[in-house]
Amino acid sequence: MENKVGLWIDHRKAIIVTPKNNEHELQTLHSNIEKRVRASGGSRINKPLWGPQEIVAEDRIFRKYKKHLTSYYKRVIEILKEYDLIYILGPGRAKKELVAEIRKIKSFASKNLHSETVDKLTERQVIAKVKKHFNNQ
Predict the structure, then answer these.
(1) Contacts of 49 (CB under 8 A, 6+ apart)
(2) Radius of gyration (C-alpha) of the chain in whole angstroms
């Protein structure tokens, strides 16, 4: 019998469901990312306009955000390594970004990977969706 896992992911958290017989294990992994990533440093404007202001390069903020997401995806991938059948659910870009990170890893080439776009789901809805997917296979 193959190891199965279902995963709902967005940029804030991942809900990992491991179905076993009629039971399931549930694990939640938070990314701890802020809505707006704050970067220290920057430079002051030469002319004060209504008080002190700092300018931080936009690419610096974006690099910090991407670095944080990459470490979050690596933590999720560490959990997924032991499974053969992987079902990934999620809205937006997080699911696609995770799948792209997984495809870079050679050890995942032999694993069966499915993904589906869904909106925000509660934990119970994620569990039901994962069970339904694996029962239909």
Answers:
(1) none
(2) 19
Distance in angstroms (rounded) separating the CA atoms of residues 42 and 44: 7
| Spans in the chain with pLDDT lower than 70 | 1, 35-56, 137
Residue 32: the pLDDT is 85
For residue 31, how many other CB atoms are within 10 A of its CB? Answer: 19
Range of the domain at 113: 4-44+51-135
Burial of 61 (0-12, 13-18, 19+ CB in 10 A): middle
Instruction: Say if residues 87 and 6 touch (Cβ distance below 8 Å).
Output: yes
pLDDT at 60: 76
Query: Based on the structure, what is the number of domains in the chain?
Result: 1
* Helical packing angle, 92-103 and 58-80, nearest 10°: 60
Distance CA 27, CA 9 (A): 12
pLDDT digits (tens, 9 = 90+) for 90-122: 988 899 999 999 999 999 988 999 999 999 999
